[in-house]
Specification:
Elements: H1 10-21, H2 28-38, H3 44-56, E1 60-63, E2 74-77, E3 83-88, E4 94-98, H4 100-113, E5 121-126, H5 129-142
Parallel strand pairs: 3-5
Antiparallel strand pairs: 1-2, 3-4
Helix pairs in contact: 1-2
Length: 143
Amino acid sequence: MRDAGIRVTAPRRAIVRVLEEAGDHLDVEEITERARALDPSVHRATVYRTLGLLKGLGLVDELDLLHLEGDRHFYEVRRETEHAHVICLTCRRVLELSGHVMAELRADLEQETGFAVKFLRMEVGGACPDCAGRARRAAADQA
């Protein structure tokens, strides 16, 4: 933020720290709650403004995760490695997929379209192994 000429205040530092330390995808309410634990002066409006700044700088991604929670959006620090969010439509579990699959997809996209891909963000919906297994067992029980 400093490199972009943006003042780094204590509330902004708290918000960035929350995002950097998050082990999952957080919405504005969760970010606000965790940031307030670090700095009680953090307000929801500050969180929204800071997220807007961070998104504009390309440091944070805003996700809708297939709108599993209605219009609720989630945030995560943009990583160097591209990844897909693989979302179970039954239990709402979110897995992240990266590595050779994403690299191959990027290469295929570039080859097929001639497009110079700058970043790749993807959401995939389906059933996780647990939910798919339960559905198969339930179908077998019905037969």
